[in-house]
Specification:
This is Glycosyltransferase 2-like domain-containing protein. The protein is α/β, with parallel strands linked by helices. Helix content is 33%, strand content 18%. It is built from 12 helices and 17 strands. The chain has a 7-stranded mixed beta sheet with strand order 3-2-1-7-12-9-13, sandwiched between helices. Strands 8-14-10-11-17 form a 5-stranded mixed beta sheet. The radius of gyration is 21 Å and the shape is globular. The chain starts with 9 loop residues before the first helix and ends in a 22-residue tail after the last helix.
């Protein structure tokens, strides 16, 4: 398996060489023999402390009505996932690889903003200490994504987070939106070539898909602490400051879908934080079409981004102390079959979480979706401002903010 070393760090090149020799007998080919549809490879990095979420991850993949599909999971830590090892033996669509390396912690030296090199150390040392093992190296989240994509066989890549909910129609809907973006990009490319009266040298083989990428601009929310749902519209939510809207539109990697050609142009940065938005911002810099897309008509539920202060590695959709989005009274029907898996996974993660996993506790006071209305009503001025902004912005926020992404950022709560 050949792979490009351009734009890759030395440790990325070493990691990719480790997977370059793997057998391909258990992989789905790029194009199915019957020629029906493009293979979508769902890629998911994970780690030892998140093994409790693996049944949820597999159920989200298994229930997808799109075919052909493939699940590629790159796991790191002292021990492999018994569950995913078993599924990889039973289900030929599952490619599971465990690497006995640690999760990285980025050490930011003084002067890093001026270009001084960032170093990596072991970020989950307590997990290794408890298991009686020793880590030989550490991999960042960005590096793990690159290894997963290297293992994947699809021309289309889709991110799944192991703790989020993806309804059965998710891949089908996103593929439809990606196809529209592809058609527009091809048309514009052909028009440009005609205008220039000369054909540009092809960057990719004729059978390959050109570089395009999409991400959701609206999605459902799930608070794992009490299993309540919400709905998030980045372009209309009044709690998101205008200057931060760009980062919110492009910075949530759980709903990324892109062609392999994107990754070959710009691999995911070898960093532990914000590797997702950095990847998409680089694609935008290279003038690759990166399009935020809506949900199906009627805000049909296809994806729910989860949050729990003691479980998630990201900070969740918060503006200051307030959870963004609007509460949803009842769980969407599309997610009901997945909820039992989410509950069990959350309980498992809370039982075995390490000190590093509890970083959310240090984020301070937070107001959940179920508490939001009552909290704001108790803060009269804040409630008034929230209602006023909602009325002013309803149905009007469709333009993209032009500011550079600030990710994440939290304004102060109105007093």
């Amino acid at each position: 398996m050949a792979f490009s070393t351009l734009r890759r760090s030395p440790r990325e090149r070493r990691a990719l060489k480790n997977v370059a020799h793997l057998d391909v007998q258990d992989r789905v080919p790029h194009r199915p023999p019957n020629g029906e549809g493009e293979l979508i490879s769902v890629v998911a990095p994970t780690s030892f402390v998140r093994h409790g979420f693996h049944p949820l991850l597999y159920e989200c993949f298994r229930h997808q009505d799109y075919e052909p599909k493939q699940l590629v999971v790159v796991d790191t830590g002292p021990l492999p996932s018994d569950f995913l090892q078993a599924k990889a033996r039973e289900d030929a669509r599952v490619v599971y690889r465990h690497y006995q390396v640690a999760d990285s912690r980025m050490d930011m030296p003084e002067g890093w903003k001026e270009g001084k090199p960032v170093t990596f150390s072991i970020g989950d040392q307590n997990v290794w200490t408890e298991s009686g093992s020793e880590a030989s190296a550490s991999w960042s989240l960005g590096l793990k994504r690159n290894v997963a994509i290297q293992l994947a066989q699809g021309e289309i890549l889709a991110h799944f987070d192991d703790d989020d909910l993806y309804a059965s129609g998710y891949l089908t809907w996103m593929k439809q939106r990606l196809d529209k973006t592809l058609d527009k990009a091809r048309s514009e490319k052909e028009k440009k070539e005609r205008e220039e009266k000369e054909k540009q040298p092809p960057l990719h083989k004729e059978s390959r898909l050109i570089p395009v990428a999409i991400t959701l601009r609206e999605w459902h929310l799930l608070d794992l602490s009490d299993m309540t749902f919400g709905f998030m519209d980045v372009e209309r939510d009044p709690l998101i400051p205008r200057e931060q809207r760009h980062g919110w539109l492009y910075g949530w990697g759980f709903s990324y879908m892109f062609t392999r050609a994107c990754w070959e142009l710009a691999p995911v940065p070898d960093v532990e934080w914000s590797e997702d938005i950095s990847f998409y911002e680089e694609l935008r810099r290279l003038q690759v079409p990166v399009v935020p897309v809506p949900l199906p008509p009627g805000h049909e539920a296809v994806c729910a981004h989860s949050y729990h202060a003691k479980v998630n590695t990201s900070g969740g959709e918060f503006s200051g102390a307030l959870r963004c989005g609007e509460p949803v009274p009842e769980p969407p029907e599309a997610f009901k079959e997945l909820l039992p898996f989410a509950k069990v996974a959350t309980e498992s993660a809370l039982q075995r979480r390490s000190a590093d996993l509890a970083a959310g506790e240090k984020q301070g006071f937070r107001v959940s979706l179920s508490e939001k209305k009552e909290f704001l009503q108790c803060r009269g001025q804040a409630w008034f401002a929230y209602q006023q902004q909602s009325a002013e912005r309803k149905g009007t926020m469709r333009g993209q903010a032009k500011s550079i992404a600030t990710w994440p950022a939290s304004p102060a709560l109105p007093s």
